[in-house]
Design goal:
Blueprint lengths: L1 E4 L2 E8 L3 E7 L8 H14 L11 H12 L1
Antiparallel strand pairs: 1-2, 2-3
């Protein structure tokens, strides 16, 4: 499911064998707006009480790690 909030796009997805993930993004037109976009994303994470639950690995990396742990 995709939602918009405070000029951010939020996408809630379930990934097989991994669980639920929330992706938050903001599209910017100029590179000088990236810093502000990052701040807005962090602020949203804080509002959702998720700032300590950030995953930087790709789904592919997580799936491969999960497969290694199962074997």
């Amino acid at each position: 499911a995709t939602y918009s909030a405070e000029s951010l796009n939020l996408d809630l997805s379930i990934v097989n064998n991994l669980g639920w993930f929330l992706e938050i993004e903001k599209l910017v037109e100029k590179s000088e707006d990236i810093g502000l976009a990052k701040k807005e994303i962090v602020d949203m994470l804080k509002k959702l009480n998720l700032e300590n639950h950030v995953e930087v690995k790709t789904y592919e990396q997580l799936i491969l790690e999960n497969k290694k742990n199962v074997l």
